[in-house]
Amino acid sequence: MIKQINGLHHVTSLASSAPENNAFFTKALGLRRVKKTVNFDAPDVYHLYYGDETGSPGTVMTYFPFPNAARGRAGTGEVGTTAFAVPKGALPFWEERLAAYNAEDMRRENRLGDERLLFKGPDGDGFALVAQDDPRTPWTADVSEDVAIRGFHSADMRLSPRGAAASAELLTFMGYEKEATDGDVTRYRMAGGNDAQVIDITQVNGPAADQGAGSVHHIAFSVDDRAAQLDVRKALLDTGYQVTPVIDRDYFWAIYFRSPGGVLFEVATNEPGFDRDEDAAHLGEALKLPTQHEHMRDRLEQMLTPIED
């Protein structure tokens, strides 16, 4: 069994408008934009990161906003809901705030003892706020500490029954423990992990999801460093998974593999962090380019849609 994984590191999704995406996460949700860079494989597309003050692992939501991208179609083999943790008693504040920002499909629910507020993002993204005690220090530039988002609570994978069973085995191999089941939902928790330590599996029947704006592209799991990552990679390869070589993503090193339920998994290091090329007081302000794209800066700055800070 793998013992090096801490919990979630980040969640990466697709969007259709960089300015709209930026406004939603920094204004409506009150997160900090901790990095403004570009997609390594499509440098004419932003890669935007939002999180706490420093972009701590387990707090960072990232987006590839492809201009005017068509919306994705919900289905099996995807992360259907990304959930953030907020303090107990904060949900009425968020209901009022999100209504003022025209968030759609808001409703309350109780899942496995958690009080949750469900809502949709600008591209129909599925989100939830989960009320719980959480020791993490939030970013408070726009939202007060007593109600602000702490980081991730969980990711909810929507899987076929076969995919759910195989993914449950994988999560167990990765160090997660089955915690509870309620109907079609089964919860797995990383005991002793970071505070973004929950994965829910929801069994659904139907066609496979079709990715587009509003879809989660992949979820990333945290490991402390490159040595731990190499141990995880070897364990996955020895078990038969097809895993990429280690890839330098500037702010972390990454490996990728496809889970049996269809969701793309990444394992990312906690090092070196988002302050490697930017002072912590000014994270996310300047456009940072990967070294191989720096020669394109003038052209990219003309092509990329301006984003308000």
From TrEMBL:
Gene3D superfamilies: 2,3-Dihydroxybiphenyl 1,2-Dioxygenase, domain 1. It holds the Pfam family Glyoxalase. PROSITE patterns: VOC. SUPFAM superfamilies: Glyoxalase/Bleomycin resistance protein/Dihydroxybiphenyl dioxygenase. InterPro entries: Extradiol_RC_dioxygenase (IPR052537), Glyas_Bleomycin-R_OHBP_Dase (IPR029068), Glyas_Fos-R_dOase_dom (IPR004360), VOC_core (IPR037523). Residues 7-132, 151-270 form the VOC domain. This is Glyoxalase family protein. It comes from Sagittula marina.
